[in-house]
Design brief:
This protein is of the alpha+beta class and 295 residues long. Helix content is 45%, strand content 24%. It has three domains: 1-51, no CATH class; 96-210, Tetrahydropterin Synthase, Chain A; 217-268. The model has no long low-confidence stretch (mean pLDDT 79).
Length: 295
C-alpha cells in the first residue's frame, strides 16, 4: 500500500510539471520548468522496476494478493511480472510429514471392540494450483498456515480413515492383513475423501500393537497352534515308523536275508558288541566276521 501511494504521488508531481511547466527567464538565460518533470519520471520508473517484478523461491507457490485479498492467480518458482499494488505471498509446497510413533501412536478400535496402537506416518503436500484457497482460509501469523492446514485438511480425515479401515480388523486372525496391506487400504479410503487442496504422497504403517487383552488371546492361540503342530508332527512320525516297520516285517517274511543285512550293518557301524558265538545268520554256528573299513 505504501509503495502504491508513493508511486501515485510522484506520478502527480510528474504530470504537474509536465502540464503546468513554463519558461522562466533569468537575465539572458531561459529555463523551461517542464524539464523538472524528468526527475519524478525517473523515480517512477525506478519504483516500477522494483515493484512489478517478483521472484518465487524453489519449492514455493506464489499467491498473488491485491490490497490483501488473494486472487485466483498462483505463481510457480521463478521470476514473474505483477502490478505494483500487488503482493506475492509464498506458500510452502514441500512434502510434509505427520508422524505418530511411540506415545503418539494412533489408537484405533478393532472388530472385537478392543483397541490397538498404530505406529504410522503420512506424507502430503499442498496442491500448488489450490494454494490461494489454502492461504485465504488458513493464513495466520508466520508459520501458522501449514500447521492450520495440517490439522484441518490432513490430521482429522487421516485419523477417521484409520479407524474406518481398522474397524473390521481381527488381530487374532492368523490371516489378517499385514502392515503394508493395511497402509494401502487406508490410503485408498483417504484418497476418496481428502480435500483437493492437499495431495497425498504416501502412508506407512510400522507396526500394529493390540492392547493387553487382545495380545493375551493372540499368545494363547499361538501356543495352541504350536501344540497342534507338534502333535501333527508326532502323528506323522508315528505313521511313517509304522509304515516302515510294516515294510520291514513283510521283507523279513519274504526274504530273511534282509534281517541278516541289517544285522551286518549294525555290527559294521559298531552299534553293539556281539557276544561270543553270535551269528547274523539264523541257526548259523560259525563265528561272525565284521569287515573292516578299507584304508
Amino acid at each position: 500500500m505504501g509503495t502504491t501511494i508513493t508511486l501515485a504521488v510522484f506520478i502527480i508531481i510528474f504530470l504537474s510539471f509536465l502540464i503546468f511547466g513554463r519558461k522562466v527567464s533569468s537575465g539572458s538565460d531561459t529555463f523551461n520548468t517542464k524539464w523538472i518533470s524528468v526527475i519524478p519520471l525517473l523515480i517512477v520508473l525506478v519504483i516500477l522496476t522494483f515493484t512489478t517484478w517478483t521472484t518465487v523461491e524453489a519449492k514455493q507457490v506464489g499467491v498473488v494478493t491485491s490490497f490483501g485479498k488473494p486472487s485466483d492467480r498462483t505463481l510457480d518458482s521463478g521470476p514473474h511480472l505483477k502490478w505494483p499494488w500487488q503482493k506475492v505471498i509464498e506458500v510452502d509446497s514441500t512434502i510434509q510429514s505427520n508422524e505418530y510413533h511411540g506415545d503418539d501412536a494412533l489408537s484405533v478400535i478393532l472388530v472385537d471392540k478392543n483397541t490397538a496402537k498404530i505406529s504410522t506416518t503420512i506424507r502430503w503436500y499442498i496442491a500448488p494450483e489450490n494454494a490461494n484457497d489454502v492461504y485465504a482460509e488458513f493464513r495466520g501469523k508466520d508459520g501458522e498456515l501449514i500447521e492450520n492446514a495440517r490439522k484441518a485438511l490432513v490430521s482429522t480425515p487421516f485419523k477417521a480413515a484409520m479407524n474406518a479401515s481398522f474397524n473390521k480388523y481381527d488381530a487374532t486372525d492368523p490371516d489378517a492383513p499385514g502392515t503394508y496391506e493395511m497402509a494401502e487400504k487406508v490410503k485408498t479410503l483417504l484418497e476418496s475423501t481428502l480435500d483437493d487442496r492437499v495431495v497425498l504422497k504416501s502412508i506407512t504403517i510400522s507396526y500394529i500393537k493390540p492392547d493387553e487383552a487382545v495380545q493375551k488371546k493372540i499368545d494363547a492361540l499361538q501356543t495352541q497352534r504350536g501344540a497342534t503342530k507338534v502333535a501333527e508332527e508326532k502323528k506323522a512320525t508315528a505313521t511313517a515308523e509304522a509304515e516302515a516297520n510294516k515294510i520291514l516285517s513283510e521283507s523279513i517274511s519274504n526274504d530273511p536275508n534282509v534281517l541278516v543285512s541289517k544285522c551286518l550293518d549294525l555290527l559294521s557301524d559298531g552299534a553293539f558288541t556281539p557276544p561270543a558265538g553270535f551269528s547274523c545268520w539264523p541257526n548259523g554256528g560259525s563265528a561272525v566276521v565284521v569287515p573292516s573299513a578299507s584304508k
